[in-house]
Amino acid sequence: MIPELRSLGWAGYLLGFGLGGFFDGILLHQILQWHHLLSLVTRPPFQDIRVQILADGLFHLLMYVIAFIGLWKLWKARHQFGAVGGDRLLLANAATGFGAWHILDGVLSHWLLGIHRVRLDSDKLLFWDLLWFVVFGVAFVVLGWWLRRSDASFGGRGGVAALVLAVLAGGPVAALPPPGVDTVMVFYKPGTRPATVFAGIEAVDGRILWSSPAGDVWALDVKDKEKTALLYRHGAWMVSNSALAVGCLAWTSARS
Questions:
Q1: pTM of the model
Q2: Which 8-state DSSP code applies to residue 70?
Q3: pLDDT tens digit sequence for 212-246
Q4: Is residue 150 located within the same domain as residue 200?
Q5: Interior CA angle at 99 toward 6 and 69, to 5°?
Q6: Which residues contact 178 (CB under 8 A, 6 or more apart)?
Q7: Total number of domains constituting the chain
Q8: Whether residue 231 is found in the same domain as residue 151
Q9: pLDDT digits 0-9 by tens, 46-99
Q10: Are residues 114 and 96 in the same domain?
Q11: Structural domain of 235
């Protein structure tokens, strides 16, 4: 890496890595709904939906932190945007970071730890793992290697803007609920009276889909999302329809 462009290069690695996490969350967790982070971990305490939600939440938080650090480094390196080869280095390292995320996910999550696989509803688990590993991992690392050695220009500040927009758009989209889902997860303080919980469900015209044995986590079908704020008036301390919570419910229900 050219010493004068070191900050710009690291910004590319971090933004690409974070974008890889967002891509996985959007495509595999939301659109295709093939798995979530701990799909194959069923031993205590991981069979508890609260632990599953916490794990997914921490994973996504880590991706946001990495992307934020990448944006911060990019801002610090803004004086390097016009340098010869600066745009190429940024995009090359972003491609490498994107591929590195999928290689790490494949080796660590799929094969060493076994916490999930790419497509759990298939009888060809290894095929899908290898396909993802090659297409989104190895291929992007090779692309990054090729870009670093290319003499082509990639739009200067336009290339930088495109990468930033992809990260800024990917972050919020990764937290959206899967399409066509009316499920909300509602969390109550331990000891909340059942009468209070049921009053809230009635207030939002909700339908019960699932509840934890302790009665502090509920999954409700609520057609009118504008009504969900009423649940806070009936003892809820958090109401979520994010992909993290809803995705966990789908897999927990399927295994039960």
A1: 0.75
A2: H
A3: 888 888 888 898 878 888 999 999 988 877 655 55
A4: no
A5: 45
A6: 29, 30, 31, 33, 243, 246, 247, 250
A7: 2
A8: no
A9: 776 667 666 777 788 899 999 999 999 999 988 887 777 788 889 999 999 999
A10: yes
A11: 183-240
